[in-house]
From TrEMBL:
Record lineage: Bacteria, Pseudomonadati, Planctomycetota, Planctomycetia, Pirellulales
Enzyme class: oxidoreductase
Gene that produces this protein: asd2
PANTHER family per UniProt: ASPARTATE-SEMIALDEHYDE DEHYDROGENASE, DEHYDROGENASE, PUTATIVE-RELATED
Protein name: Aspartate-semialdehyde dehydrogenase
Function: Catalyzes the NADPH-dependent formation of L-aspartate-semialdehyde (L-ASA) by the reductive dephosphorylation of L-aspartyl-4-phosphate.
Organism: Novipirellula herctigrandis
The entry's keywords: Amino-acid biosynthesis, Diaminopimelate biosynthesis, Lysine biosynthesis, Methionine biosynthesis, NADP, Oxidoreductase, Threonine biosynthesis
Active-site residues from the entry: C128, H241
Length: 334
């Protein structure tokens, strides 16, 4: 039984949505503990009508905690997760630090729920751009085996946290009056601009964000043979990541079959009516938990290719919602 639940990073953008999801999904725990850095200690957060004070994230904070959901930077997760596990907590971690550890299952509940059974105290939630793509790939992979993916992402500034969203607003205001706002969060001004770099230079000209999409996709789907060619771009959108995805499969599937597979898969909503200008857009998908798919069409350059457009709220399914769903999965199986 998981009676005491801790939320780490409870006052951040993702942490707040975690708390919202916990209330909406009515997970069966008895006590909630909120943990954060020193600057948030003592703040009160309301949950189910009760005011809960934020406590300091430190060794000893996980005494009597059964399950923890962590939304922190990598360096914080590297430090707190081991002592949380040592104190007896199972941790669902949203950072990137533990994702590729071979002992840590990387979970999307709609895609690979059984992998959660193999945890040793730590379960990881994937990168936001990976999560929505793999949810969309999964029904195709189950039927026809995905062999190659070419993906270009159009990632919102909220993916860089609250500073990213604030920088977009400041950058746009400056651009409107003919000034340049000096960037701090991004490499260049983001207002009315696109930046084809997310993360650091990593491998053969690819960035760290792009390589996450390669390795995490292979791990979640359990197939190192899937080839992924990603290009990740930061765009001047506040919230909601979009992706242009081209999939090649071992077995041929038609556009009609692909659409039926998407429609039948848990967590996917199809919005696909080009003649009537209907397709997923970030402004329509914000605040929703599904992955939205549209512009489904045959790849006219490949006999076994399907192209489509994919949008999801990166703070929800890309982060908070997926983590809470993992916690929910664990509780149902306890």
């Amino acid at each position: 039984m998981y009676e005491t639940l801790a939320v780490v990073g409870a006052t951040g953008a993702v942490g707040r949505i975690v708390l919202e999801q916990l209330q909406q999904r009515n997970l069966p725990f008895k006590k909630l503990k909120l943990l954060a850095s020193e600057r948030s200690v003592g703040k009160e957060v309301r949950f189910n009508g009760e005011a809960i004070k934020v406590e300091l994230l430190a060794p000893g904070a996980f005494k009597n905690v059964d399950l923890a959901i962590g939304s922190t930077p990598d360096e914080i997760a590297a430090e707190f997760v081991p002592y949380a596990v040592k104190e007896g907590a199972v941790v669902v971690d949203e950072s990137g630090y533990w994702r590729m550890d071979p002992k840590v299952p990387l979970i999307i509940p709609e895609v690979n729920p059984d992998a959660a059974n193999k945890h040793e105290g730590i379960l990881a939630s994937p990168n936001c751009s990976t999560t929505q793509m793999v949810v969309a790939l999964a029904p195709l992979h189950q039927v026809a085996r995905v062999t190659r993916v070419v993906v270009s992402t159009y990632q919102a500034t909220s993916g860089a946290g609250l500073p990213g969203s604030e920088e977009l607003n400041d950058s746009v205001r400056s651009a409107l009056v003919g000034q340049t706002h000096p960037p701090k969060t991004f490499q260049h001004p983001i207002g009315f601009n696109l930046i084809p770099q997310i993360g650091s230079s990593k491998y053969e000209g690819y960035t760290s964000e792009e390589m996450k999409m390669v390795y995490e996709t292979q791990k979640i789907l359990g197939d190192d043979g899937i080839q992924v060619c990603p290009t990740c771009v930061r765009v001047p959108v506040t919230n909601g990541h979009s992706e242009s995805i081209l999939v090649e499969t071992e077995k041929h599937i038609s556009v009609e079959e692909a659409k039926e597979l998407f429609e039948a898969f848990e967590g996917i909503t199809v919005v696909d009516d080009l003649p009537n200008n209907q397709y997923p857009m970030p402004r329509d998908c914000e605040g929703k938990d599904d992955v939205f798919v549209g512009r489904i069409r045959k790849d006219i350059s490949s006999p076994n290719g399907i192209a489509f457009w994919c949008v999801s709220d990166n703070l929800r399914k890309g982060a908070a919602t997926n983590a809470v769903q993992i916690a929910e999965l664990l509780m149902k199986r306890s």
